[in-house]
Specification:
Shape: globular
Bound molecules: FE2/S2 (inorganic) cluster
Order of helices and strands: EEEEE
Helix content: under 10%
Number of helices: 0
Largest sheet: 3 strands, antiparallel
Number of strands: 5
Strand content: 25-35%
Distance between the termini: 40 Å
Radius of gyration: 15 Å
Strand order of the largest sheet: 1-2-5
C-alpha cells in the first residue's frame, strides 16, 4: 500500500510540490488535472495560473523604503 502514497513536499516560502499526477478540486468544485511528474501548487496566492505555481512567489514585493522584502 505504501507505493500508492504520493510524496508531498512543503517548501519554505514557495509552492507545495506533489509528486505524480494530481487531480485538484477548486473551491467552486471545478477540477484541474496535472499529469506532470511533479506539480507545484501555489501557496502564496500570487500565481496567475492558480492552483499552480508560476514562480510569482520569487518576485520582489514593493515595500516601504528600508523595509525588508517578505
Ligand atoms: S507559490 Fe509560487 S507563485 Fe505562489
Amino acid at each position: 500500500m505504501a507505493e500508492d502514497r504520493r510524496r508531498v513536499v512543503v517548501t519554505g516560502e514557495g509552492p507545495i510540490l506533489v509528486h505524480g499526477p494530481v487531480d485538484v478540486e477548486m473551491p467552486d468544485g471545478t477540477r484541474v488535472q496535472s499529469d506532470r511528474a511533479v506539480t507545484a501548487l501555489c501557496m502564496c496566492g500570487r500565481s496567475r495560473r492558480r492552483p499552480f505555481c508560476d514562480t510569482s512567489h520569487r518576485r520582489r514585493v514593493r515595500g516601504k523604503e528600508g523595509e525588508e522584502d517578505p
